[in-house]
Amino acid sequence: MFVAKFDAKQRKIKYIFLRSVLDDKNIDVTVIPEIPLAPEGKGILSEAIRRNDTIIVNDYQKRLEQSKVKYHITNEGNLAEKDLGKEYIIETAMIVPIKHNGNILGFITLMSKNKNEFDDRNRTWIETMVNQAAIANKNAILYSEVLNDAREKNILEDSMKRLSAERDTLAKEASNRVKENMKIISSLLQFQSDYVKDPVYHEYFKIARTRAQVLSMIQDKLYARESVSHVELESFLYTLIPHLYEQFEISLNRVSTYVNVKNVKLPIDKAITCSMIINELLSNSLLHSFPHKKKGNVTIDMHEETEGKYVLSVRDNGPGVISAKGKPHSFSMVLAGMLTKNLNGTLEVDRNLGTKVTIRF
After folding, report:
1. How many CB atoms lie within 10 A of CB 359?
2. Reduced to 3 states, what is the DSSP secondary structure of residue 99?
3. Torsion, CA 302, CA 308, CA 309, CA 310, rounded to 10
4. What is the pTM of this model?
């Protein structure tokens, strides 16, 4: 018996198993070269492939003479030009194609030194056995493909993890550079403010420093979390507010700040703009709404009014710096208005019982 596979694309036959009749042992088939599909009317195996059906050969020697290429295999597994020293002559053979979905994957050939060994009586159960082998072979191929797909998937996942790690590294490096740049700007402003004697201009430098520091804080808040697409505003404000009190040397006992911002997460671009607005409005209230060390409070409120529509308000109960007509008298208010336009939002000022700035975007 021998088993061979058929490569339909290359149109070649390759022996993969051969068992000796005399010694009842397997013979090395690696020495047998691939056999090209023979022309019409030539080659017993080629005929079975062309017919796509089982062939029973009862005159094997006669049919062998018609073959274009002959291979004689010795019991040692060597190729010979002639059939040397064998104690038998093959009289009959059955070639059964191994098929799946009508396509030939290969075939099993059974040979016998007896005449009329194969007929329709044993053809049925042999074909059934070969069909099971074909299914098992196809399953093995599919399993191999699944393993290959799994390996490719693992390679792709490893590549994606590597790219993700590289992206995170670059993002963190960019964040660190932004923070370092903001620190440099802040230090330069501090250095410059040391040469300013006028308290008004000295205050301008302080506010300018807080703007640089806010950007640095956002970078810290953004890349300290797993998500780099959104910023949770409430936690950011609890970082910003103590910082402003420290910068402006204002006691919490004199001016209290209340935060009413729950479950507000903004995309990074809107979070930066919104944080800058809050910085300007809160700084403005702390510096100008409570002159002569008066006591008071500031309330920051923000919520999602409807899906994707937000309302932000900063309210204090001090006299403020906005005129009765609602026109801003400080650069902070001008900047807050400009930033609101960047959000495609609106800014309203209410002077009743202090100053309340409401922004919708």
Report:
1. 23
2. strand
3. 10
4. 0.50
